[in-house]
Structures are given as C-alpha cells and as structure tokens.
Design a protein that fits this description.
This is DUF1145 domain-containing protein. The chain is an all-alpha fold. The protein contains six helices and no strands.
Length: 113
C-alpha cells in the first residue's frame, strides 16, 4: 500500500512539473509574440518586464544550483533549460545528484576501509 501511494505521489509531482514547464514555455512563446509586435502597447511593456524579471530569477537559480549541474552529462543543455524553465527543470535533478553523491561517498569510505 505504501509503495502504491509513493508512486501515485511521484506521478502527481511529475504531472505538476510537466504542467509547469508547459506554462513556462507558453509564456516564452507570448514573449516571442511581443518581440515581433503581435501584442498591443500596454501589454507589450508588461510582458517585456515580466520576461526580464523571469530571466533574472532563473539566472539566480542557475547561480545557486550551479554545483547540481556540474556532474551532469550535458551541463550546458541543463543550464539552458534552467534559464527557460527554472525550478521546473531543477527539481527532478536534486535527488539524482544527492544519490550519486551518497554512492561516491560510500565508495570512498569502502576504499579507505
């Protein structure tokens, strides 16, 4: 029963992350539309302001979680995805990095024993 609840919870979290990425991607598409002047003047400035804020926020996230991305197979692609999606890309990466760190610590401990 506990195993079923855990997989159900992880499935819900994955759906939430995918929905967050989809909404973030839709915002960047709206920003692209604002860049080519498909959006009217009062909303265009607001979209540009929100995009600048979001880019700064994701840049801060990239700076704070830089050590999480260093051990990845393609860190530059991960950095680009963090700039686009922010925490929606970072959240699933944290447990894998922590598990890898625990495995390397256990291997190092076994080597010294």
């Amino acid at each position: 029963m506990l195993r079923y609840w855990k997989t159900e919870r992880e499935g819900g979290m994955k759906a939430l992350l995918i929905a967050g990425k989809a909404l973030t991607l839709s915002f960047w598409l709206v920003f692209g539309a604002a860049l080519v002047k498909w959006v009217g003047p009062p909303f265009e400035q607001l979209i540009h302001l929100l995009a600048a804020f979001l880019l700064v926020l994701h840049g801060v996230q990239l700076w704070l979680f830089a050590d999480t991305l260093t051990g990845r197979s393609n860190p530059w692609l991960d950095r680009l995805q963090v700039l686009l999606f922010g925490i929606f890309h970072l959240y699933p990466l944290k447990p894998t990095v922590a598990a890898a760190a625990e495995a390397s610590a256990a291997a190092e401990e076994a080597a010294h024993a």
